[in-house]
Design goal:
The structure holds two protein chains of two kinds. Chain A is α/β, with parallel strands linked by helices. Chain A has helices spanning 26-35, 75-82, 115-125, 130-144, 159-171, 189-204, 216-222, 240-255, and strands at residues 4-17, 47-60, 64-68, 90-95, 99-102, 177-180, 208-212, 225-230, 233-239, 262-263, 269-276, 286-287, 293-301, 305-316, 321-332, 335-343, 351-361, 364-370, 375-377. Chain A is built from eight helices and 19 strands. Chain B is 72% helix and 1% strand.
C-alpha cells in the first residue's frame, strides 16, 4: 500500500532570462555572429533563473498531494517536469505508473471539429486509447450534458459548453497518477463542484494525485499532504492542515501591517506571548483536538493594575469575528502573570485564526495585541466533503433517520 | 520511468513512437479532417492544383518552349512529375509549421514530438491518393499501359515521404527557434522545384554534372516516378543511389537535430 510511486531527487529547472526573447529571428543571430569579433569587453553572460531548485520528495501510491505557493513559486514547473513536458536541468525523478496530466482544460480541442470528433482527439492526446474512448464515449457525452450539439463544430459551442465537454473527457481519464494544475479555478460553481467530486472519486479508488490550487478549501478537502513551494524550493511540507494554516497566516501577515501589532501605552503591562496547553511545545499555536482546549496568554506587569478591564476576541483569516468576551475589575500585581482560558471545545473549521487580547484601565488602553503566531486549527474535518459553502463550524454530529419520538 | 536532464538525444525513440501510434493516427486524422472541412471544395483541391499546373506547364514549357518529353504526351510527362512534387511541397510546408502551430499542445501535454512532423508528412498522402486518381484518368485518356516498372512506385513514394520528413524535421525544429524559416520556405520550395526535373527531364543536365544534380533527392524521386508510371525511358540508377544516400543523411541528421530541439522546445516556443 505504501509503495513509492513518485521519487524526486535534487530536481532543478533553470531558465534563461534577460537577453533572450521568446524566440529568435535568424537575422538577429546572424548580426550577432558578424558583430561578435568587433565587440569589446567580456561577453555578456545570459542571466539564469532557477524556477525550481534542488527539490526532493517521495509520494506513495494513493496519496493526494497539494502544491501551494505564490505565483512563480515553481508549482507549474514541477508539474511540467513530472509529466515530461519539459526536461529538468539537474536531478532526476522516477514516476511509476501510467501518468495523466491535466494542465489545461480542453487540451487539443480544435474549433473546426465536431464535439464528438473532439472527444476522440482530446482523449487521445490526454493518453486514452481509441478502444477506451469507444467504450467511454456514452459516459463522456452523458457527463458533459451537450448531447444535442455533438455533431456541431466546436466553434459554435459556448465557452461553458466547451468547458463541460473538455472536462467530461478529462474526467474519464484513468491514469494511475494524475497531475492537475489550476484547472478547477475556471468555470462556474457547479462545474467546480463536479470536478471536485470526480477528483474525490479518483482519489478514493486508490490512485495518486498531485494537485495545484490557490483555493485552500479545495486543497484542504482533497489532500492529505501539502508541499508549500517558495522561490522554487519546498519551503514546508507535511499534513495538509498544518502547512495550510501556516501558509494562510503567512499570507495574511504579509498582507497588512499586522505583524503582531500592538497599541496602547504599555507602561504598566504588556502581553508577551500566548500558547495552547494541549499541544507539543514546539508547535504552541497548533490546535489538533476537538476536545478541551486551554489557552494561556502571558502578561508582564510592571506596575499594579487595580481596576483593569480585559477583552478577548477571535478572528478568522478573513477578519470575521468568531467570538468575543470581556472581564471587568481585573487586578494584577507586578511580575509575570497569565490569563488562562479553558474551552470545552473550539469547533471551528480548520484554518488560521487570530486571537486579540487587550488590557484597559480607566478607558485607556494599556496594551492591545493581535497575537502572533496565529492559531492554526488542524483538526479532523467533520464537514461534508463536497460542501462548497464551507460552514464556519466543524462539529461532529450523530444522525438517525427513524420514528418520531 | 526516469525523468532526467537531457543527455542522449541521438537515440531514436522508436519504441516510444510505437507506444504512441494511436496518437499519431489521430494527428493524421485531425489534419485530414480539418483540411477538408475548412475548404469550400475540399478534396477537389488535391486534383485541381496539379491539374491546372499541368495545363500551364504543358502549354508554356511544352507547346511553346518545346521541352523534350521523352516521347510522352506533355500532360502525362508533367502530371507524373507533379504528383510527387506537389506531395513533397505541401508535406514540407505542413511539417515545417507543425511545431509552431501546435505550441499550445506542446506546452501542456507530453507525447513524442516526433509524432507531429511525422503525421504532417503522412497526412499529405491522402491528397496524393486523390490526385493519383486523376493521373489514372489521364493515362486512360492517352491509352498508356503501365509497365512492370509500376511495381517500383511504392519505393519512390517512400523515398519522397522520407525526403519530406528529413527536411521537414530540420525545418520544423529550426522554425520553432527561428521564425524566419516561415518566410524562407516559399522561396526554398520555388528554387527547389526549379532544381528538380519537374518542368524538364533530367537528361537536359550535362552528363558530367549529373552527380551534382543527384544531390537533390527529389531529382531521383521525380525521375523514378516518371519512369515507373509512364514506363518510358530508363530507370534512374546512378542518380538514384546518390539521392538515396542524401535522403538517409538528411533524415538521420534531421532526427538528431529534432531530438535535440525537442528537449527544450516546450521552453522556447
Amino acid at each position: 500500500m505504501t509503495e513509492t510511486v513518485i521519487h524526486v531527487e535534487g530536481l532543478g529547472k533553470r531558465y534563461r532570462v534577460g537577453e533572450r526573447e521568446r524566440y529568435l529571428a535568424l537575422r538577429d543571430v546572424l548580426t550577432r555572429a558578424f558583430t561578435a569579433p568587433l565587440r569589446r569587453g567580456p561577453r555578456r553572460t545570459p542571466d539564469y533563473m532557477w524556477a525550481l531548485r534542488d527539490v526532493s520528495f517521495d509520494i506513495s501510491q494513493g496519496e493526494v498531494v497539494g502544491l501551494i505557493g505564490r505565483n512563480g513559486a515553481g508549482k507549474t514547473t514541477l508539474l511540467k517536469l513530472l509529466s515530461r513536458i519539459t526536461r529538468p536541468t539537474t536531478g532526476f525523478a522516477e514516476v511509476r505508473g501510467r501518468v495523466g496530466s491535466l494542465l489545461e482544460v480542453g487540451t487539443g480541442f480544435h474549433p473546426e471539429l465536431t464535439g464528438r470528433e473532439n472527444i476522440y482527439l482530446s482523449g487521445a492526446i490526454l493518453g486514452m486509447s481509441k478502444r477506451e474512448i469507444d467504450q467511454k464515449q456514452d459516459a463522456i457525452v452523458a457527463f458533459s450534458g451537450v448531447e444535442r450539439y455533438l455533431d456541431t463544430p466546436l466553434k459554435y459551442f459556448s465557452t461553458g459548453m466547451q468547458m463541460r465537454l473538455a472536462f467530461a473527457v478529462a474526467a474519464h481519464l484513468e491514469p494511475e497518477i494524475l497531475f492537475v494544475d489550476e484547472v478547477l479555478a475556471v468555470g462556474d460553481l457547479e462545474f467546480q463542484k463536479k470536478c471536485l467530486g470526480k477528483m474525490q472519486d479518483i482519489s478514493e479508488s486508490g490512485r495518486t494525485i498531485v494537485f495545484v490550487s490557490h483555493q485552500m478549501n479545495q486543497i484542504r478537502r482533497l489532500c492529505q499532504r501539502v508541499f508549500w513551494l517558495e522561490n522554487g524550493q519546498i519551503h514546508k511540507s507535511g499534513p495538509a492542515g498544518i502547512v495550510l494554516g501556516e501558509y494562510e497566516s503567512a499570507l495574511t501577515s504579509s498582507r497588512g501591517n499586522r505583524n503582531g501589532s500592538t497599541n496602547g501605552t504599555r507602561t504598566k503591562a504588556k502581553f508577551i506571548g500566548w500558547q495552547i496547553s494541549e499541544t507539543p511545545a514546539e508547535l504552541p499555536n497548533l490546535l489538533t483536538t476537538l476536545g478541551q482546549v486551554t489557552i494561556r496568554f502571558t502578561v508582564e506587569v510592571f506596575a499594579p493594575v487595580q481596576l483593569g478591564h480585559h477583552g478577548i476576541a477571535l478572528f478568522n483569516s478573513e477578519k470575521q469575528l468568531m467570538w468575543a468576551w470581556a472581564k471587568d475589575e481585573v487586578k494584577l500585581e507586578p511580575g509575570l502573570r497569565e490569563f488562562r482560558y479553558t474551552f470545552p471545545t473550539l469547533p471551528l473549521r480548520p484554518g488560521s485564526y487570530c486571537w486579540q487580547v487587550s488590557l484597559w484601565e480607566n478607558g485607556q488602553v494599556i496594551d492591545l495585541w493581535d497575537c502572533l503566531p496565529e492559531m492554526i486549527i488542524a483538526t479532523e474535518v467533520h464537514q461534508h466533503a463536497r460542501d462548497e459553502w464551507n460552514g464556519i463550524l466543524n462539529i461532529p454530529c450523530q444522525f438517525v433517520a427513524g420514528e418520531t419520538s | 520511468m526516469r525523468i532526467t536532464p537531457p543527455s542522449s538525444w541521438w537515440v531514436v525513440p522508436l519504441g516510444e513512437l510505437w507506444n504512441y501510434r494511436e496518437l499519431l493516427y489521430f494527428f493524421v486524422w485531425r489534419d485530414i479532417k480539418i483540411r477538408y472541412k475548412q475548404t469550400a471544395i475540399g478534396a477537389a483541391w488535391a486534383v485541381l492544383q496539379p491539374f491546372l499546373t499541368m495545363l500551364v506547364f504543358s502549354l508554356f514549357f511544352g507547346r511553346l518552349a518545346h521541352i523534350p518529353s521523352q516521347g510522352l504526351p506533355y500532360p502525362v510527362f508533367y502530371y507524373s512529375a507533379l504528383l510527387p512534387w506537389m506531395y513533397f511541397a505541401s508535406a514540407l510546408q505542413n511539417a515545417t509549421n507543425t511545431i509552431v502551430e501546435n505550441q499550445r499542445l506542446i506546452t501542456k501535454v507530453y507525447f513524442p514530438r516526433l509524432a507531429l512532423p511525422l503525421s504532417a508528412v503522412l497526412s499529405g498522402l491522402v491528397d496524393f491518393g486523390v490526385s493519383f486518381l486523376m493521373f489514372v484518368a489521364i493515362m486512360i485518356y492517352y491509352r498508356i499501359h503501365p509497365s512492370a516498372a509500376l511495381l517500383w512506385l511504392p519505393f519512390f513514394l517512400l523515398l519522397a515521404v522520407l525526403t519530406a520528413l528529413g527536411v521537414g524535421l530540420w525545418l520544423s525544429a529550426l522554425n520553432a527557434i527561428y521564425r524566419d524559416v516561415r518566410y524562407v520556405l516559399p522561396f526554398l520550395v520555388q528554387f527547389w522545384m526549379i532544381a528538380s526535373p519537374v518542368a524538364y527531364p533530367s537528361s537536359l543536365v550535362p552528363e558530367k554534372w549529373r552527380w551534382l544534380y543527384g544531390l537533390n533527392p527529389m531529382a531521383g524521386v521525380i525521375e523514378g516516378f516518371r519512369w515507373s508510371l509512364a514506363g518510358k525511358g530508363e530507370p534512374p540508377s546512378g542518380l538514384l543511389f546518390i539521392s538515396m544516400g542524401v535522403v538517409l543523411l538528411v533524415l538521420l541528421s534531421g532526427v538528431a537535430y529534432f531530438q535535440k530541439m525537442e528537449t527544450t522546445v516546450a521552453d522556447v516556443v
